[in-house]
Each structure stands twice: as structure tokens, then as C-alpha cells.
Amino acid sequence: MKIAKGLLLSPERNFWFGAVAVAVSFFAFAYSTRFGQLLILVYYAFWLPLVIVDQRRFVDIFVKSWWILGFALFACLSTFWSAAPGSSLRGGVQYLSHVVCALIAARVLHIRTLALGGLSGIALVLAYSLADGTHSYDPLDGAYSLVGAFSSKNQLGFFASVGIYLAYAALVPLRERSLWGIFALVVGALSAYCLLASQSATSIIAVAVVLAACLCLRAMLHFTPLVRRFVFLFGIALALTGAFVAFNLGAFDALLGVFGKDATLTGRTYLWSEGMAAFREHPIFGVGYQAYWVQGFADAERLWEEFFIETRTGFHFHNTFIETLVELGLLGLLLLIPIFWSSLFPPLGRAVSDRRDLQAHILFGFGILLVVRSAVEVDVINPYIIGSFLLYYSVGSLAGSGRRDIVAAPVLRATQH
User: Fold this and answer.
1) b/e per residue, 348-360, with b = 16+ CB within 10 A?
2) What is the residue-wise DSSP string for 140-153?
3) Which site among 6, 155, 281, 357 is 20 to 30 Å from 237 CA-CA?
């Protein structure tokens, strides 16, 4: 039986294939450590074979997006100077292949397909964690919180925050109604419950910032393009001034107090200082990709013990840029920054210029979410993580093909029935 290419590759015709692929991918990102490598193989099985279906098409996007692959390629190259070459080679190849999958998705998925498929995946992930029901005691802040089938409340909180944002994207920019609209409301409510039950301050603050930024952007769209630009620049200046004043008046400490945190951010500032000390020992190239948190290495073992990480795996410096400096040095950071930049400012510019550009509106929210979280989490520089998939999907969508998803949602829905 032959399957038409369009049902797999055309963003206007592959809704059901794309939605299932995204949902399964999100579930794999959440629980591959729990269920084993089979889930990762299923994830690859959805995306990599598409290259065989139309080789010329994907070679073209990889050539145009060479700079996006720079960070992942550099991670692979770090094997040659790594303190743990085996870890760097394995991790680098996994990360590069993960980035390739995200770029393939960027080429073939309409933003509506990603949003609704993502909502379905989040529903599966959160339902499974609620069924698991595990609560964990955090010795650093002295609180019990829901972790579900995850090893950390922050991981559960991250998926819940993505679920809230995708529900917003479905209901507001995409204007989903009927069954998909009801589904978005249900998943949004489920995500909100899991977010509060996880007590993840990082995720709560991040999704609040994202929703505020997106609502402000939509409010600006009622003005003419020229006025939008002026309002945007004025708003940025006002926000920075307000943040500076609030910080000096103690608002930051008060906000931490609401979430039961202290000025050290439950030990993060100490971790940051340790990370910067490690960076200064290897400032240009770093110690190698995924070559710091290795069992048997003295510094890693010491920090695992100090932070009660009994499994001696899965820890990091709780800051994306410091983690990058430690593993890949200044050169690695210089390769990562343009990717972050491209996830934030190009979609913002397009959204301000064209109110019909649904893709830009939604991708801007992803950019805000990942940038805010990068200050206290590591979501985008590891393979098989929802954050890195969304980052490279966003950047690849805007960079490779120049495609803009500006079709009104009702029109697109009509083409899928």
C-alpha cells in the first residue's frame, strides 16, 4: 500500500500523522528514563524516516540551517578533548540526532498540528503522573510535592507549564472551539492542577511571565504597525525600569518568600559559584559535553552528596549558560546564544509586523518560556527533552523554509476533513 507523500510531509494535509507523532514524542521525552530506550526508538521512527521519503527537501533545509546545527556538532567534537570521551561521544550523537528530528518536525508540521498534538501528549504525560501519584520530600526547602512518575517536581512543573501555554495557544491565537476547544480547556485545567501540586516555583513564574507577555503582545495588535513598534519600545523601557525599581524595593525577596525560597534560591547560587569555578579551569573548550556529571569524578560526587542526589545522576548547575560554559566553554556559549536569540526576536518582529502570523505569535511564547527558565534550569542542551525539541522546532520553523502559518484556523480545519 502506497501512502501519498502529502499525508506525511505537507503541513496542510498531515494533521493526524503530525499530531500523533508530537504526542508520542512528548511522552517519550517525559518517560524514556522510566520505560527504557524503546520509547526513544519509537520517537526516531516517527521523524527520521521522513528524510528517506523526500531526501532533497530535507538536505535543503539542513544546508540552510547549518548554523543551527553548530552547537550540536560542537558537542560531538568535544569528544576529542573531553574528560569523559565516551560520555561526550554518546551524548553528542544523541543530541545531534535529536536536533535533526526537531528540524524535520519544523519542516513538516503546521503550528496548529504542533499545538494540538502537544496538548494530547501533555494530557498523556500528566495523566500517567497523576495515576502514579508519587509525592517527594525536598530536603532543601522542606516541602512535600507531587512528582508523579518523574524524578523531580521541576520536571513535572515544566510539562504542566507547557500544557498551560499550549491550552492558551489553542484557545486564543488559534481560536479552537467545539471538541478541540473543550479538550484544550480540560488539559489546561489538568496542567494548572499539576503545576500547583508540584510546587515548582520556576515553572509557575515562567508560565506567568509567558502568558503576560503574550497577552500584552495581543493587546498591541489592535494598533497600527507603526504604533505597535512605538508601544513595544515604550513597554520594554517601562518594564525594565519597573523591574529595577521593584528589585531595589525588595520585591524579589518578597516573591521568593511567597514560594518558600530564600536568597540562595535553595542552593542555586552556591551551585552557580561552583560552576563558574569549574569554567575558569577550562574556559575556552570546557571539560567536554556531558563530561562533568560523571560518576567517579570528585567534584560531581561532592555536589551530589551535598544536594542529597542519591542516584548520582541527572543533576546540573541549574543555569543553562553556566552549564554550557562548564561543558563547552566560551566557544559553546557563543554557538548557543544565536539559537536563543533566533527563538525570541525574529518571531516577535514578525508578530508585531503581521497580526495574522499565528506561527510567530505562538513561537514567541515558546521563546519567552525557554529564555526565562534558562536562568535557573537546563532545558535545551540535552537530548530527548521537550525544551530542546521546542527550541529547535521554533528556530527551524523560522529559519529554513521561510514558511509562515498565517492561514486562519477555521480555513485550515476545513482542509483537514
Assistant:
1) bebbbeebebbbb
2) TTTEEEE-TTSS-H
3) 357
